[in-house]
Amino acid sequence: MPGRRPSASISPEFALLGFLAQRPAHGYDLHQRLVTELGEIWHIRLSQTYNILNRLETQGMIVARLQKQDKLPDRHIFELTPAGLKRFQDWLHTPTPCSVRAIRVEFTTRLYFARAGDPRLARELIFEQTHTVEQGIARMEIALERCSTEQAFNRLGLQLRIAQLRIILEWLKECEVTLGLVEV
């Protein structure tokens, strides 16, 4: 699997690329799918969707063709290019960093597309994310042990992060059950 990316690179562009990997669509349709299917994960305005689509088109990740409409303005139908599909596939197979925000936003989006395409990949992503979170907890517990009692706020911060990641481990188990990915 490709290397990890910093959580600062979290972007809804991968959700848009994922929708386009499923089928060509116009900008408004893509935005509506984002709101309807992933709206509790991504909070994005229509103008942001169009800005991302413009950027992806400039980067050669998508192409637009005009669709004529009777009594309405022509609209752009976007399709993935081979480069866009590769970018999406690379992202889909890249582990999510051990960050609560990255897991909430990026991992959940990745899991959505993995399950839609191949439930085995979804199960693999959950397994890998569980391992990544367990490693993160272990590192933070070591850091907590090394943190002196005089560093009260550093200790509190580490304790909070550990507690959040433990809850995420439980949530990952729930993902398997909810999505019907538990092997019998």
Task: Draw up the topology in text.
Blueprint: H1 13-22, E1 25-26, H2 27-38, H3 46-58, E2 62-67, E3 75-80, H4 82-92, H5 100-117, H6 119-146, H7 152-178
Antiparallel strand pairs: 1-3, 2-3
Helix pairs in contact: 1-2, 1-4, 2-3, 5-6, 6-7
Mean pLDDT: 92
Q: What class would the helix/strand composition place it in?
A: mainly alpha
Question: What is the H-and-E element order?
Answer: HEHHEEHHHH
The helix count comes to 7
**Strand percent estimate:** 5-15%
**Oligomer status:** single chain
Low-confidence stretches: 1-8
Distance between the termini: 27 Å
The count of β-strands is 3
CA radius of gyration: 19 Å
What is the share of helical residues?
55-70%
* Main sheet characteristics: 3 strands, antiparallel
What is the molecular shape? elongated
Strand order of the largest sheet: 1-3-2
What would your notes on this structure say?
The structure is a single chain. With 184 residues, the chain is mainly alpha-helical. It contains seven helices and three strands; from the N terminus they run H-E-H-H-E-E-H-H-H-H. It has a three-stranded antiparallel β-sheet. Strand 2 and strand 3 form a beta hairpin. Helix 1 crosses helix 4 (82-92) and helix 2 crosses helix 3 (46-58). It is elongated. The two termini are 27 Å apart. The model is unreliable at 1-8 (pLDDT under 50).
